[in-house]
Specification:
heterodimer, A: Double-stranded beta-helix, six-stranded antiparallel beta sheet, 4 helices, B: Double-stranded beta-helix, eleven-stranded antiparallel beta sheet
Chain lengths: ~220, ~230
């Protein structure tokens, strides 16, 4: 599998080249185009897995694209303007913010992490974890920047794309002063990372964008 | 002046500021991307430097007014630390970030333009005139003065125009301008038809000499466009 990211950094498209009989799994709705010898299968990977994904703010189904009888091409995109990164999975495993996930090799198992931290963090932060070997494609809202953590670092949950599974993290309030101050600060929740590894951040926050534009729009009529 | 850098211009701009021990960065609520863990963040009322009781009361009034008028937030975050450290700040919309060093001069900005400040910067609200009340934008301007650093953000790219004589800018495209310029908010011409039919809303007519910062996109126009598509 060979992935090229085109039209960086704002209007990215992941151009995926598949060898005969090779396949890639992608988030539903991500496909923009594909060659005719690519076969698309829609799977939930089992009812429970599908429900878990649904609960995690993702779609119930995921699509698998397989090249048949020759090389195949699949083009993948995201709804918002932003960048993409192609990361190796194997020696390093990743934790991914659910909204950042685009695609993965079928040799990589991508699972919604058990509730706990991810669920209680609110702020729409649901986390996917990788296992196995291969590649993943993640997308951002805004530019992507890899940040090396060496010690400690604090990142707004809305700006997280993915991070090294080696890193320890806790989700907490953004201000040292208390919950009320954290609420007023408008920063929502932050992730305190500890250890050594990489975190990919995005320079825009979709919720922040949504609330800035959203509060100027008329209420939706039901 | 704290060390700073703007990355990912012009669409996804992000401001990186490296604070020395004792330096304070004041930033718009909700704008933090990440920070060093040795920096602390305090939430404060957007009340300027060392306000007295009346200063705070006034800030309350202004903050309320801003809330009604839109654009600016009630609270700001103060970042500081005994050993210093870095903090990254990003605006909500796609657009640029511009550094404005203030050395005693005064500049006016649209209310949504404030991103961050450091040093002895004073921010006040200035009334744009009765006519401006008709428009969604430009009823108030933010007046910045003092000595220090100011960072403003835009929707779209920021362009700088030097006004020598007169110049007209659509209200929704103004980021800021030098206070040496006189400004008058008016309809773009063509009388009532011009106001309601041209789609230009209100414009700001500048006279004198000074810089005008404009942005290549208009938030009001985006909102209008989206509103038409809403069910």
């Amino acid at each position: 599998m060979q992935v090229n990211v085109l039209y960086r950094p704002s209007q990215t498209v992941a151009q995926v080249w598949l060898q005969p009989n090779e396949s890639i799994m992608a988030e539903s709705g991500a496909m923009m185009g594909m060659s005719t010898n690519v076969d698309m299968q829609t799977q939930s990977g089992g009812l429970m897995k599908g429900l878990k994904r649904l609960f995690g703010g993702e779609s119930f189904f995921r699509n698998t694209f397989m090249a048949q009888g020759g090389q195949g091409e699949v083009l993948l995109t995201t709804p918002l303007c932003g960048d993409m990164a192609v990361l190796d999975v194997g020696q390093r495993q990743w934790q991914i913010s659910n909204s950042a996930f685009i695609a993965s090799s079928t040799t990589v198992d991508v699972q919604t992490q058990g509730s706990g931290k991810g669920f209680f963090s609110g702020a729409g932060l649901f986390i996917l974890g990788t296992q196995g070997q291969g590649q993943i494609v993640v997308g951002s809202f805004g530019a992507i920047e890899p940040v090396n953590v060496n010690g400690e670092l604090i990142i707004d949950t809305g700006h997280l794309v993915c991070w090294d599974a080696n890193l320890q993290y806790t989700v907490g309030k953004s201000s040292n002063a208390g919950w009320i101050a954290s609420y007023l600060s408008g920063e929502g929740l932050v992730c305190h990372f500890q250890g050594q590894g990489q975190v990919y951040i995005q320079t825009r926050n979709a919720q922040e964008y949504g609330s800035t534009v959203g509060r100027m729009l008329p209420p939706v009529q039901k | 002046m704290p060390q700073h850098m703007v990355k990912y211009e012009p669409t996804f701009s992000m401001l990186e500021v490296n604070l020395a021990p004792g330096e304070v960065l004041i930033a718009e609520a909700g704008s933090m991307v990440a920070r060093a863990s040795n920096l602390e963040m305090d939430v404060k009322l957007n009340a300027g430097r060392n306000p007295g009781f009346f200063g705070k009361l006034k800030a309350m009034m202004i903050a309320l007014l801003r809330k009604v008028v839109g654009g600016e937030t009630f609270f700001v975050n103060h970042f500081h630390g005994g050993q210093g450290g870095w903090v990254w700040i990003a605006p909500a919309l796609s657009g640029g970030v511009r550094h404005i060093p203030l050395q005693g001069q005064t500049m006016l900005f649209s209310t949504g333009a404030f991103l961050a400040s450091a040093g002895e910067v004073d921010l006040k609200l200035r009334f744009g005139g009765l006519r401006a009340l008709l428009a969604k934008e430009g009823a108030f301007f933010l007046e910045a003065s003092g000595h220090g650093d100011l960072w403003v953000n835009s929707y779209g790219a920021i362009d700088e125009i030097y006004c020598n004589g007169t110049y007209v800018v659509d209200n929704g495209h103004i980021v800021g301008f030098d206070s040496s310029l006189d400004f008058k908010i008016k309809t773009p011409g063509g009388g009532a038809m011009g106001f309601f039919g041209s789609g230009e809303g209100l414009v700001c007519e500048f006279t004198g000499q000074g810089r005008i910062l404009i942005q290549s996109r208009n938030l009001g126009a985006l909102v209008e466009w989206l509103t038409r598509l809403m069910p």
